[in-house]
Amino acid sequence: MTGVALLAARRTAVVPRGSAFRDLEPFALAAALIGPLLAEAGIATEAVDEVILGNALSGGGNVARVAALAAGLPQHIPALTLDTQCCSGLDAIRMGAARIAAGEARYVLAGGVESFSRAPLRAHRPRSKDEAPVFYRQPAFTPWPEREPDLAAAAAALARAEGISRQAQEAFAMESHRRSLAAAPPDGEIVPVNGMAMDPFARVLSPALLARLPVIAGDAAFGVTAATTAVEADAAAMVLLGPGDEGQVQVLGALARGGDPLMPALAPVAAVDALCARLGLHARDIEHVELMEAYAVQALAGIGRLGLDPVRVNAQGGALARGHPIGASGAVLAVRAFHRLRAAGGRALVAIAGAGGIASAMVLSRQDETLRPWQD
């Protein structure tokens, strides 16, 4: 097994659905990142061995292949699109790292892309000529219709089970927005697309404003609201992976774990615990943490169960202040972790939950004195 490094990492802005990226197909968002990534690392297009992208909403096809061709990569370079819902972008990076670690590739472009704005309408085909198509918003996440989780309801149930009040969730959301407004992304993190060079959603929130919002799931004491739920968004995020001796930011390890489909927000806890045990680390000792904020309670439960220092978690704001481009969100976290490490050094933990009770986690490091083998 050989070491694996992130040689470059870029993303688009994360833009709420129906706004600046509303007319852009997912492949166009992803294609915009490929040239800047290769240029930053000084890698020729012909040297790329594969493109791997996560995507959840495009309705099939191979978005990664279309993006690669749109970006002008040679036709012989293969491309793969995978769907593990919210984990897709981070899983694509994990898969790309595994390719390199196994000696199957030298350079892999990996990440995720999503467009809520351009997501196709989905319908179940009629079983007979007398039936009409039945439109649906999300696919099944379990084989048991009676146990199929509504994600907002699952978040509210978790809040009650963990004793995380609505007010605690709102305080977390306010802090996420505050941090995002206080810390602009570093130069080189965002590739401008359609004039968008900053995440536009973050704003100043107040307790009085948040208290007026209706509960969308759960009860008055522990329910979730629009402010404690990440908004649907459009974005792409990608990294260029290569041999460990060619970059400063190393992939120390990554893995995926499954958990209870009815409590998907808790799945990252098991994934992080297993990964840290494998690496001989304690999550609480990792300097930088990028933890998905699909719901405020999801992040709060993870922080509590993993014993994390809240100051180290999403130090520059999280998805509550940006938005949630499902298949790209894990890759967005990885890109942000890369730039944090380049600026400050140390180690970074990236973790995200996915519908159906799955999670992915990755640990990166900029401890340049030691190149450790990548582990999966």
TrEMBL record:
Give the EC number: 2.3.1.-
Every Thiolase C-terminal domain range: 256-365
Q: Which residues cross the membrane?
A: none
Question: Which residue numbers delimit the Thiolase N-terminal domain?
Answer: 4-241
Gene Ontology MF annotations: acyltransferase activity
Q: Which UniProt keywords apply?
A: Acyltransferase, Transferase
Report the InterPro entries cross-referenced here.
Answer: Thiolase, Thiolase-like, Thiolase_C, Thiolase_CS, Thiolase_N
Family assignment? Belongs to the thiolase-like superfamily. Thiolase family.
Recorded hits in PANTHER family, A to Z, give: ACETYL-COA ACETYLTRANSFERASE, CYTOSOLIC, ACETYL-COA C-ACYLTRANSFERASE
Name recorded for this polypeptide: Thiolase family protein
